[in-house]
């Protein structure tokens, strides 16, 4: 292949869009279409190493997307030419990601350029998805009950900030965090304690693995019955859900210490505690942090699902289930956005911790191609 | 990475049977004691209201045979299970088999959709570098948001379009399933060593041939390791999907109605059924895995 197919596609579609909307379109849109066609034509033969081309394309795409959004928000229904142009922009966006994926920063420039490159492609992709969502929902006049546009959801986020903050406080601060701490601590302590007794360990490991196969979320109604409607029952569900992954992972991690290292400590006449603190616990860190990462998502799920079984009139799970009933789908999406943000940050916290604490582990070394 | 190849768990037998049996026995003892502890306040209250004579022995036996206990004793749950599984016809609405069947059917359709989607995404990601750079971070990010929170909305929105019944629940199961499959399969499809890939190049094999003859066979152990996780998740998805929309049938609906009417026996019976179904699904996948790997000559 001499030419990039996606550039060619973008060029053809932009030309078609220009012809179709030549009569009715505004000046801004026509300029954007022509700009896109020119950029596509220009990027057609670029084969590799084009971060400059990538930046130029990105700027053109942003301008084009802005023109489309202007157009779509002005009219209730957009004409066909606009959609052809959106398709052309999609091809150009794909081409940009292609260009940017092929670039790799030289190591002597430090870490920042590579990080920027690594972030730019997924960011572009995400921004593109949001643009499609916004333009399609407004342009095709999709009923709000089905799928509200991101701009509407953003408006709700601003207007209902107080309610959302109260929900966040109830669900995250009062249920997820205490439950998570209790569950993880108990799992960790149980694992370390039972590790001293091989008999206990041999019994706990299969049981823990069995529990990982069953839907623990189902204990939510029981916990609501025992601990009442308020946050205590949610924290209890979270604690139970996070207990077992921590237990199983810590046990596996403690058993992971190498024979050679153990022998070395043995020759130093190290006692049990020295061995535990100097070798086995640090060695178990990757497993423990993995459990923390898994648990961070489980904890959010547990708290929200437990709220489906009865809550005081505050909380994310409560908000979602009642607003769905009242067909306020934009409020539901706003709550989901808050939950997604909280969940990602919670997960990101442990991912960062993993990077700093277990930098020595092979999986944290410079990634070879495609190693996740 | 260290876990280059999914390690097969040791089987249940052998050295761990004794400890497991003892732990289960200890758990049962704690359970019975806990039933007395949790149920007695209500019973004592009742005794005092009716001014009945009561002794410790009566308290214990009563707390193990309450109609709506705080914590039912294991034999009460067993009786409830027997009543709702063996003593009712399978098609009855009070039979747990019927409800488990409803949940299982949506979980399985979701599992199949999710697994196929996961495999397709993994093949795309392995072959198209741009897809890997752009899509993979979002796939990982999609798992840090509490997906089950979206469940009620998916059901209502799909219901508004006119899609009801099995499919919305299957969609939620599929959403939970696809992630472990994608991640596992990407790893598995990349697992052939450079030597083997070079050999395929020497043979002038096309991408499709390399995929079919080298990458896919090499990814089978990874696939099954992910499928075991995915199948358990698919059941969780189906159960949770039944909670919000006021579903009439299914284990999740059973849990919900049990919690509305305070029928703890019912909740526990549904919970145990769900656990048994889930554990047997995982075991079934394990069985298929053993058959497949043996047939492929990966293990004696």
Describe the protein's topology.
The complex is a heterodimer of chains A (372) and B (300).
Chain A: H1 5-20, H2 27-43, H3 51-74, H4 80-102, H5 112-139, H6 150-159, H7 161-196, H8 198-211, H9 220-227, H10 231-254, H11 259-267, H12 272-307, H13 316-325, H14 329-357
Chain B: H1 17-50, H2 56-63, H3 74-85, H4 96-127, H5 129-144, H6 151-161, H7 166-189, H8 194-202, H9 207-241, H10 251-260, H11 264-295
Helix pairs in contact in B: 1-2, 3-11, 4-5, 4-7, 4-9, 4-10, 6-7, 7-9, 9-11, 10-11
Structure commentary:
The complex is a heterodimer of chains A (372) and B (300). Chain A has 14 helices and no strands. Chain A folds into two domains: 5-142; 157-364, MetI-like (MetI-like fold). The longest helix of chain A is centred in the middle third of the chain and has 36 residues, at 161-196. Chain A is 76% helix and 0% strand. With 372 residues, chain A is mostly helical. Chain A has helices at 5-20, 27-43, 51-74, 80-102, 112-139, 150-159, 161-196, 198-211, 220-227, 231-254, 259-267, 272-307, 316-325, 329-357. Chain B has 300 residues and is mainly alpha-helical. Chain B folds into two domains: 15-63; 96-295, MetI-like fold. In chain B, helix 3 (74-85) crosses helix 11. Chain B is elongated, with a radius of gyration of 25 Å. Chain B starts with 16 loop residues before the first helix and ends in a 5-residue tail after the last helix. The model of chain B is unreliable at 1-13 (pLDDT under 50). Classes of the chains: A mainly alpha (372), B mainly alpha (300). Chains A and B meet through helix 4, helix 5, helix 8, helix 9 and helix 12 of A and helix 1, helix 5, helix 6, helix 7 and helix 9 of B.
């Amino acid at each position: 292949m001499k030419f990039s197919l996606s550039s060619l596609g973008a060029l053809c579609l932009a030309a078609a869009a220009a012809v179709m909307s030549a009569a009715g379109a505004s000046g801004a849109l026509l300029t954007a279409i022509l700009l896109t066609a020119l950029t596509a034509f220009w990027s057609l033969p670029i084969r590799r190493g084009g971060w400059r081309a990538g930046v130029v394309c990105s700027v053109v795409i942003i301008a084009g997307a802005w023109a489309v959004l202007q157009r779509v928000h002005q009219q209730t229904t957009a004409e066909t030419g606009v959609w052809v142009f959106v398709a052309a922009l999609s091809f150009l966006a794909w081409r940009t990601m292609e260009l940017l994926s092929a670039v790799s920063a030289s190591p002597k420039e430090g870490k920042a350029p590579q990080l920027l490159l690594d972030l730019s492609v997924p960011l572009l992709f995400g921004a593109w998805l949001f643009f499609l969502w916004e333009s399609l929902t407004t342009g095709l006049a999709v009923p709000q009950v089905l799928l509200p546009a991101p701009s509407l959801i953003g408006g709700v986020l601003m207007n209902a900030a107080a309610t959302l903050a109260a929900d966040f406080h109830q669900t995250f601060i009062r249920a997820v965090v205490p439950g998570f701490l209790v569950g993880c601590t108990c799992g960790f302590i149980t694992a370390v304690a039972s590790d001293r007794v091989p008999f206990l360990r041999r019994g706990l490991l299969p049981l823990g693995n069995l529990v990982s196969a069953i839907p623990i979320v189902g204990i939510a109604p029981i916990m609501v019955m025992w601990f009442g409607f308020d946050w205590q029952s949610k924290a209890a569900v979270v604690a139970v859900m996070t207990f077992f992954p921590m237990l199983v992972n810590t046990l596996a991690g403690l058993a992971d210490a190498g024979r050679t290292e153990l022998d070395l400590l043995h020759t130093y006449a190290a006692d049990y505690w020295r061995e535990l603190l100097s070798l086995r616990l640090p060695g178990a860190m990757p497993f423990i942090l993995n459990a923390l990462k898994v648990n961070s998502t489980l904890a959010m799920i547990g708290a929200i699902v437990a709220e489906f079984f009865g809550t005081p009139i505050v909380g994310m799970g409560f908000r979602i289930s009642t607003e769905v009933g009242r067909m306020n789908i934009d409020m539901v999406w706003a709550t989901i956005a808050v939950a997604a943000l909280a969940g990602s940050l919670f997960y990101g916290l442990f991912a960062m911790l993993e990077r700093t604490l277990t930098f020595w582990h092979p999986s944290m070394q410079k990634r070879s191609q495609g190693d996740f | 990475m260290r876990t280059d190849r999914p390690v097969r768990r040791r089987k249940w037998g052998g050295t761990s049977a004794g400890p497991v049996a003892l732990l289960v026995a200890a758990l049962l003892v704690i359970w019975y004691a806990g039933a007395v502890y949790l149920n007695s306040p209500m019973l004592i209250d009742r005794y005092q209201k009716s001014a009945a004579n009561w002794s410790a022995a009566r308290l214990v036996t009563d707390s193990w045979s309450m109609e709506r206990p705080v914590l039912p004793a294991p034999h009460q749950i067993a009786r409830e299970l027997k009543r709702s599984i063996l003593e009712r016809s399978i098609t009855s609405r009070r039979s747990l088999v019927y409800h488990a069947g409803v949940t299982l059917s949506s979980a399985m359709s979701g599992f199949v959709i999710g697994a196929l989607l996961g495999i397709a995404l993994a093949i795309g990601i392995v072959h198209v570098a741009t897809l890997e750079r752009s899509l993979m971070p979002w796939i990982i990010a999609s798992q840090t948001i509490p997906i089950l929170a979206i469940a009620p909305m998916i059901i209502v929105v799909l219901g508004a379009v006119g899609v009801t019944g099995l499919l919305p629940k299957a969609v939620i199961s599929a959403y939970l399933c696809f992630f472990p499959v994608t991640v596992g399969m990407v790893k598995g499809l990349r697992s052939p060593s450079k030597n083997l890939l070079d050999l395929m190049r020497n043979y002038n094999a096309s991408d499709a041939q390399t995929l079919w003859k080298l990458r896919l066979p090499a990814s089978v152990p990874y696939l099954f390791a992910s499928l075991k996780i995915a199948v358990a998740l698919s059941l969780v998805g189906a159960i949770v999907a039944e909670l919000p929309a006021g579903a009439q049938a299914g284990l999740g609906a059973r849990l919900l109605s049990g919690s509305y009417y305070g029928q703890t026996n019912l909740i526990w019976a549904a919970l145990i059924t769900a656990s048994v179904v889930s554990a047997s699904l995982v075991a079934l996948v394990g069985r298929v895995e053993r058959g497949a790997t043996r047939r492929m000559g990966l293990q004696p």
